[in-house]
């Protein structure tokens, strides 16, 4: 019966792929010639028993993902947007699945989140027919991933995400050359390589014949990328063409376990023998690109029909492809440019794809505009060489990949030689099972850390805070945790629940190579004195296991075994010690990874592809960007930086942790943890803004890639998006935020003469509002928390009192216009928007001064009040780290007419059309002993405001720009000092 079900429903799904969904059971009954299928019971039984490798289950995942993703105005789509729960509901409804099957389908095949695409005008060429005609390398890559154990829905999502990129490249067969430039933004350690491998596979199928992959700046990352492409794309048959029977040194992969176990993708024969292009490598795993000298003809592309150009289908589809994987090194790229220069007259016919991995590193021009001459720009070496490649090859397509796009979108788009993603930006969705920012921070909760539990707090489960000043014993507990988590992995493996090839710990304190050596010595000495086989050491491990490891694993709800009794883990501790400790007991388990030439031999052992790695890695930049640290479980991190992109790229603890998610720990300081929180907020803010503006308004796009830079936020003034030498641009004039809270934090800092004067002026500016706040009301107190990982607002059953003032919009604008800030640009775009609103959009404001529970906080300000005084912390730059509290926001939102989960009778009574709400927090420094003694003029009145949806611009466009480029009035990014 199972074969009948597979055949019947598989045929039904095949038939519906182009037409769209329809009632599936009668169609399957028709194809299977079996009327018993019409009730759906057989399908339900099959899916309930099917494993991930089941053919029908995989087909279901692929077809559902296709319907999820497609832009369609067909009746079945019911006007729903792609990749939404509404779209999936429309599909399931049209298929007429019964409730039990609907529930099973939802659990087996959750709908993927669509990538966010911001694109300029482009020409569609990737028709279904062209995709189907030539999908040789993509189909083999897809099959490879499925055989490797990837979920069919995830692979289908990768298919659609890569298609969002490839379709925006130029048609390789078009007569007139066009050079598209784009950017793909993923998450740190989130599978960007899988995406660009898929893009390359589809591009080669489509006709691109030279693929240049620019990796980071280290040999380790380049070799890692080359090997992965060799395994998953190039494949065994292409590689075997390079093996000479007369080469006594053997093939580069002859000792590779994956080669020996036949894990390299197979194409079923030499591709060119069955009408598809071979892929010839011009770099290998061991060797970067080198001058070809007399062999430079390897870069030539013969034409079968010499009267036609190479890009003509008759020539293109019969020519082979070349692959170069090169690190971003001046000498390497100079060699590549020189060799290409020998065939320059023919390069104009070659469709080229340049993939720039970690494209914000080294690729961006970082010279100051002050150094540019009138007719040209000085360029950094790598930027200049990439520009040469693009100028030499008019059919070259440039696609950058990064998790931190700030430097890329700050490039001047009018610079035709540079790499600004003028044509498209694709922001990839967060992958399933990925551990990211939300797994290490408790966002959207006001529960004090002391009151959180392992069950309710991601932060408690995974983060361990260190003192700001390093202590000699800081590393003892992380080392113990590393050993224990390794033992738990071996315990799980011993009981047949998982397999762990690698188990690593990362120690990152500084860039200095001298510090790396000293740290390695400290760790080796501490490890050797750990007494891990003696009673004292085992007692220490038992306490850490019972208080931390076991409790977190239980709270995480993992279905993997974690022994309840520490004694059951002791054999695994001994086994872990044997794997971690090197044979030479006088040394230790540390591998130092940096650019120190004296350590190259030691670093050669850090080869995750060739051998299991159970070691502690000490290093800096070499381990920070792009390079995947396999099996990373424990991180000790103390390195400070002032740039979001640098900080995020150091977050090696982000990524996929199959079988040991509950064991992941990061040891860091509170300050660094807060900096990561701010960086993560900057990142998520940009993604949210891109998602918001990617939706068309009246059928027209809201923004193009040129208009992205001003969407970048900065949650901490001391943490810039990227280096100053990459930020020469962009002025945001006006920013609308209908229904969205606005909470500036850059208030003047009392304590200096200038700060005191500005704070006094601000307090005086608020006097009309203070004097109007004569009424006291009570609002409901709410609590923000997470339930099952979902942010929610809950009624606490309590209330708080507050003074309120009602004022005309124009009067409030005058107050806001009078305020002084740390920076002249603070709140300026928002104030410009507020100032231009009509009375129909915003007529009145309700200003709320919440009171704390304790009467001791009450005091008058300029003889008005009394008001509660709050204590707030400032960052090292003087800005407030936060202003509002979620317990007060519910009332403000309801006054502005916004829906919230918790009703509030008093707030609802104060609601009126065209009404906004402001919550004001009079505050002083957190360490002030008696807030009531602070001079009136030195109290900072900080606020959060929220506007009603009536403030939505009639055009639907929420942002306005300022341009200074007289040569191009549409330019958004400008050359500015």
Largest sheet: 8 strands, mixed
CATH architecture of the largest domain: 3-Layer(aba) Sandwich
Low-confidence stretches: 726-730, 961-977
CATH C-level class of the largest domain is Alpha Beta
Q: What fraction of the residues are assigned to beta strands by DSSP?
A: 15-25%
Structural class: alpha/beta
What is the third-level CATH name, the topology of the largest domain? Rossmann fold
| Number of DSSP strand runs | 26
Q: Give the strand line-up of the largest sheet.
A: 1-8-2-7-6-3-5-4
| Domain module count | 4
Q: Categorize the overall geometry.
A: globular
Mean pLDDT: 85
Question: In percent, how helical is the residue content?
Answer: 25-40%
Q: Supply the number of helical segments.
A: 31
Distance between the termini: 73 Å
Based on CA atoms alone, the radius of gyration comes out at 30 Å
Seen as an oligomer or otherwise, the chain set is: single chain
């Amino acid at each position: 019966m199972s074969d009948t079900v597979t055949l019947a429903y598989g045929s039904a799904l095949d038939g519906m792929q182009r037409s769209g969904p329809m009632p599936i059971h009668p169609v399957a009954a028709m194809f299977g010639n079996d009327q018993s299928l019409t009730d759906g019971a057989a399908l339900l039984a099959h899916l309930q028993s099917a494993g991930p490798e089941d053919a029908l289950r995989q087909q279901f995942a692929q077809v559902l993902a296709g319907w999820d993703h497609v832009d369609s105005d067909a009746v079945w789509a019911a006007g729903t947007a792609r990749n939404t729960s509404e779209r999936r509901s429309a599909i399931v409804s049209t298929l007429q699945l019964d409730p039990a099957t609907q529930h099973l389908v939802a659990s087996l095949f959750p709908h993927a989140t669509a990538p966010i695409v911001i694109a300029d005008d482009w020409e569609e060429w990737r028709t279904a027919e062209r995709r189907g005609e030539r999908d040789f390398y993509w189909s083999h890559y897809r099959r490879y991933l499925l055989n490797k154990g990837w979920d069919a829905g995830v692979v289908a999502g990768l298919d659609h995400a890569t298609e969002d990129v490839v379709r925006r490249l130029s048609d390789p067969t078009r007569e007139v050359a066009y050079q598209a430039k784009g950017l793909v933004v993923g998450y740190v350690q989130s599978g960007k390589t899988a995406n660009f491998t898929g893009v390359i596979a589809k591009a080669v199928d489509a006709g691109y014949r030279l693929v240049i992959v620019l990796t980071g700046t280290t040999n380790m990352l380049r070799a890692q990328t080359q090997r992965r492409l060799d395994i998953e794309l190039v494949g065994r048959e292409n590689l075997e063409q390079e093996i000479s029977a007369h080469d006594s040194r053997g093939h580069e992969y002859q000792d590779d376990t994956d080669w020996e176990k036949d894990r390299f993708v197979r194409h079923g024969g030499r591709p060119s023998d069955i009408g598809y292009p071979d892929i010839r490598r011009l770099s290998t795993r061991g060797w970067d690109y080198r001058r070809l000298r007399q062999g430079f003809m390897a870069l030539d592309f013969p034409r079968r029909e010499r009267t036609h150009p190479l890009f003509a289908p008759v020539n293109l589809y019969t020519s082979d492809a070349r692959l170069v994987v090169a690190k971003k090194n001046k000498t390497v790229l100079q060699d590549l440019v020189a060799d290409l220069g020998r065939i320059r007259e023919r390069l104009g016919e070659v469709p080229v794809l340049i993939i720039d991995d970690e494209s914000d590193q080294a690729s961006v021009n970082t010279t100051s505009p002050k150094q540019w001459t009138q007719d040209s720009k000085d360029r950094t070496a790598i930027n200049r060489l990439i520009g040469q490649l693009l100028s030499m090859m008019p059919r070259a397509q440039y696609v950058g990949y990064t998790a931190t796009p700030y430097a890329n979108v700050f490039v001047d788009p009018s610079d035709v030689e540079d790499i600004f993603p003028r044509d498209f930006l694709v922001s990839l969705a967060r992958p399933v099972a990925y551990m990211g920012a939300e797994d290490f921070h408790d966002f959207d909760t006001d529960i004090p850390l002391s009151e959180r539990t392992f069950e309710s707090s991601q932060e408690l489960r995974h983060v361990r805070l260190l003192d700001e000043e390093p202590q000699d014993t800081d590393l003892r507990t992380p080392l113990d945790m590393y050993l224990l988590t390794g033992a738990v992995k071996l315990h799980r493996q011993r009981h047949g629940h998982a397999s762990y090839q690698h188990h690593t710990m990362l120690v990152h304190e500084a860039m200095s190579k001298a510090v790396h050596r000293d740290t390695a010595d400290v760790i080796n000495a501490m490890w050797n004195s750990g007494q891990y086989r003696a009673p004292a050491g085992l007692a220490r491990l038992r306490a850490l296991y019972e208080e931390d490891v076991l409790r977190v694993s239980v709270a995480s709800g993992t279905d993997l075994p974690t022994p309840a009794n520490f004694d059951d883990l002791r054999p695994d501790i001994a086994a872990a010690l044997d794997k971690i400790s090197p044979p030479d007991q006088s040394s230790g388990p540390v591998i130092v990874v940096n650019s120190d030439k004296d350590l190259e031999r030691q670093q050669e052992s850090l080869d995750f592809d060739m051998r299991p790695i159970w070691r502690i890695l000490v290093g800096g930049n070499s381990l920070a960007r792009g390079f995947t640290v396999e099996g990373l479980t424990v991180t000790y991190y103390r390195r400070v930086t002032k740039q979001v992109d640098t900080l995020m790229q150091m977050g090696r603890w982000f990524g996929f942790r199959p079988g040991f998610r509950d064991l992941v720990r990061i040891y860091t300081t509170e300050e660094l943890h807060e900096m990561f929180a701010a960086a993560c907020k900057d990142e998520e803010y940009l993604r949210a803004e891109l998602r918001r503006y990617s939706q068309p308004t009246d059928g027209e796009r809201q923004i193009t890639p040129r208009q992205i830079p001003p969407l970048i936020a900065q949650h901490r003034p001391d943490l810039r998006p990227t280096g100053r030498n990459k930020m020469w641009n962009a002025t945001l004039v006006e920013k609308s935020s209908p229904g969205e809270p606005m909470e500036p934090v850059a208030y003047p800092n009392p304590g200096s003469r200038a700060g005191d004067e500005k704070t006094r002026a601000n307090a005086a500016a608020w006097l009309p509002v203070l004097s109007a706040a004569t009424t006291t009301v009570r609002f409901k107190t709410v609590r923000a928390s997470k339930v099952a990982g979902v942010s929610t607002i809950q009624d606490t059953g309590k209330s708080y009192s507050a003074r309120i003032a009602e004022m005309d919009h124009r009067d409030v604008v005058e107050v806001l216009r009078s305020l002084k800030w740390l920076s002249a640009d603070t709140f300026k775009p928002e104030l410009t928007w507020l100032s231009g609103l009509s009375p129909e959009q915003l007529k009145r404001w309700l200003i709320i001064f919440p009171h704390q529970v304790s009467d001791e906080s009450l005091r008058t300000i300029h003889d008005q009040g009394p008001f509660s005084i709050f204590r707030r912390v400032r960052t090292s730059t003087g800005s407030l780290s936060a202003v509002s509290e979620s317990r007060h926001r519910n009332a403000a939102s309801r006054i502005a007419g916004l829906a919230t989960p918790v009703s509030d009778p008093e707030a609802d009574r104060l609601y009126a059309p065209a009404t906004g709400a402001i919550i004001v927090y009079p505050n002083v420094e957190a360490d002030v002993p008696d807030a009531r003694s602070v001079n009136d003029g030195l109290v900072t009145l900080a606020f959060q405001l929220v506007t009603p949806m009536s403030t939505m611009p009639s055009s639907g466009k929420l942002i306005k720009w300022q341009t200074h480029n007289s040569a191009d009035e549409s330019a958004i990014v400008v050359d500015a000092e």
